[in-house]
Amino acid sequence: MDYFLQSIILWSCRHVTEAGLVALVNKCPELECINVGGMRVSPESFAGLKSISPALRIRSIPQILNADVQVA
Fold this sequence. Notes:
alpha/beta, three-stranded parallel beta sheet, 3 helices
């Protein structure tokens, strides 16, 4: 069964493993963006996620804080 999750914030979820992220990306083909700031997963493992879903945006808290965001 596939799920239709488009975005997920896993910020500071220190018990999420690389295998868990791979399973998430495999089971959620509609996933567009994942926030992984503060996790204990190595940055190298995110390359594997991009190989599963090349269009996946992988963000971290510093990227979001440094983004030019306008609040209405």
